[in-house]
């Protein structure tokens, strides 16, 4: 049922982020099959699988996710990817995600979700997002001009 599917995604996401070996291995296998077009991930498993492989991934994993983002033809999939990019844990890759947030690949209204994902991904991500916000304050403020997105950005 619908509630079981939601619970399954939540549990798998938590197990994957925590590094549960069997969950991590299965997520990597399913992600590889998804990327190669062998077996497309169901929508309810994409976020937990994406989070798991990113949390324990490297620059190749991030590049693959950014490629999936670019190739996505539905905005819903782009948004799903944007929300989970903050799970990446290496400092230089966190910076790459933050830079991506301000790129033309991300709609201005979705930049906040990318930065929020980084801020919520880890303590290190939160510090990096705060520094990024301060360093890019003028551009972000001008982009959102005192609207609700600037207040949301500050909250995250």
Automatic annotation (TrEMBL):
Gene3D superfamilies, per the entry: 1.25.50.20
InterPro entries (UniProt xref): ERAP1-like_C_dom, Peptidase_M1_aminopeptidases
GO terms assigned for molecular function: metalloaminopeptidase activity; peptide binding; zinc ion binding
Family of the protein in this entry: Belongs to the peptidase M1 family.
Organism: Elachura formosa
Annotated gene: Npepps
Gene Ontology biological-process annotations: peptide catabolic process; proteolysis
Any matching Pfam family: ERAP1_C
Protein name in UniProt: PSA aminopeptidase
Key words of the record: Aminopeptidase, Hydrolase, Protease
One of the record's GO cellular component terms: membrane
Domain ERAP1-like C-terminal as annotated: residue spans: 2-155
């Amino acid at each position: 049922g619908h509630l079981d599917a939601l619970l399954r995604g939540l549990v798998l996401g938590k197990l994957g982020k925590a590094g549960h070996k069997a969950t991590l291995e299965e997520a990597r296998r399913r992600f590889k099959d998804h990327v190669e077009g062998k077996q497309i991930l169901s929508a309810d498993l994409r976020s937990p699988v994406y989070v798991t492989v990113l949390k324990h991934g490297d620059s190749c994993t991030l590049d693959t996710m950014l490629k999936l983002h670019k190739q996505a033809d539905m905005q819903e999939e782009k948004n799903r990817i944007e929300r989970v990019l903050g799970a990446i844990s290496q400092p230089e890759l966190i910076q790459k995600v933050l830079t991506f947030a301000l790129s033309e690949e991300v709609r201005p209204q979705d930049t906040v979700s990318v930065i929020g994902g980084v801020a919520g991904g880890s303590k290190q991500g939160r510090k990096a997002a705060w520094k990024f916000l301060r360093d890019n304050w003028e551009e972000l403020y001008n982009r959102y001009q005192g609207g609700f997105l600037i207040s949301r950005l500050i909250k995250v």
